[in-house]
Specification:
- The chain has 493 residues and is of the alpha/beta class.
- It has two domains: 361 residues, no CATH class; 126 residues, Rossmann fold.
- The strands form two sheets. The chain has a five-stranded mixed beta sheet. A two-stranded antiparallel ribbon has the order 1-2.
- Helix 8 packs across helix 13.
Amino acid sequence: MNKWLGVIIACVVIILRLATTHNEGLTVESYAHVNQAVHIQATGFPLLTYTLSGTTTRALFSPVYDYLLAITGSIFGNTHAIHLIGAFIAGLLVLGVFTFILHSTKNSTAAVLASLAAALIPIGWSDILTASSANLGILIGLWILICFLHIDNNIWRIFFLILLVLGVLTSSVILLFLLGLVAYLALAEMARINRPHGEHEFVFFGLLFLLWVYIVLYKDVFVLHGWQAIWQNTPTLFRNSYFSDLHTLDVIVSIGIFPFIGGMYVMYRHLFVEHERPVYLIMSLVLSTGILTWAQIVTPTIGLRVLSIGLVVLFGFAARDILHYLRTTKLGLLRHGVPLVAVLLLLVSSIPATDEVHDAKTNTVTPDELAAMHWIRENTPEHAVIAASWTEGILLSSQTGRTPIMNDQFLLQPESTTRIEDIHTILAAPFQSDVIDALNKYHADFVLWTEVSRAITGRDSPIFATDLICFTPLFTKGSVIVYGIACGLERDA
């Protein structure tokens, strides 16, 4: 029965997440995957290029998630498929945490507490309405570590290799797990931990395989961007903003205070007192990912998701130690009440998860924005260029078939910083001549004004909207406006 507790908790998580996402939409970021899924469903192949004003850029991505979405979406519809896949990823992550703790400690109570903590991680609820290949990569990475626990068994070795190939073709986040394994080899060697034969060979095979695949897929990226490819050519301004609002308290709240404290306690004891192989395996992942996030090599979102899973697993070892300590004292009878108290504390620490769900629901593409996309698709020329914020470029491409000035897929994008500055000029410049010059530069025919534009400019309406001769509102619904452009040297000519 104990082995089925993890399955039961995972099923509850899946049902709860599906109930939470019922009749909800998608975030803007999801439409990059929706675009790929639609193309796969129509042709059987992913979309290898996308068009920006004045250029065609090669799309670079790992295809596993998009094929999974295309297959599932052909049955349930792409929106429901994204919700369904996200729910199952969350459920299988919880099951993975339960399995890791149960295999490592043989303590089902500790495994249940760790899996409950995994289910209640606040940051795990922040993207319930977002299509994320990174989350699938984290799930595969966790099960790779579970296979690595039993690397001396031939069957587990086969599963390790299968998941390794699948993970490399799913998301670059798998690199964090492989670097964690490299760190584990170093720390375990220094601690003189008894380890099964073959660990070095499998770790370095995995690392070399990943490097080979990335060189084949991304050689043009490294040639064009150099070390900027590590940050996916994200403009420096955006990279700095990712980390400027990240504070220690935010990290603790995002992970959960009790999993954070329990995880840190276990790491302290095993760095200086105890030496358990499974703990070193997870501790190495936490340390390497924490350092890379602190060094601003890994984005905070990805870093915190990986750290949260690692610390939740370590929390399971802390729960085991507490239960064992109570069993050896005169307070042994109290150990039966510890799980209930722990569950209540975990529920309290997960209160921020409700805020994450609320924020996720408020950040979805609104019905007014989708109505604007429909109008653009039905009432503009096929080769029209639409000026909109860079975060909405993929949404425009996937929902209208029209050409944006740019999107937020920065790899191999020409002059991405310049294009961002020009879009900001179009949306916020105080002088109409500057706006028209920027529009003419990209041969833009229309301007899309949404809540994202308001957030960028801090204005309820664009400054150019006062000129109804040059900028005519052609579509208005709620807070969304589509402006037609009638002025400019090129148009007058």
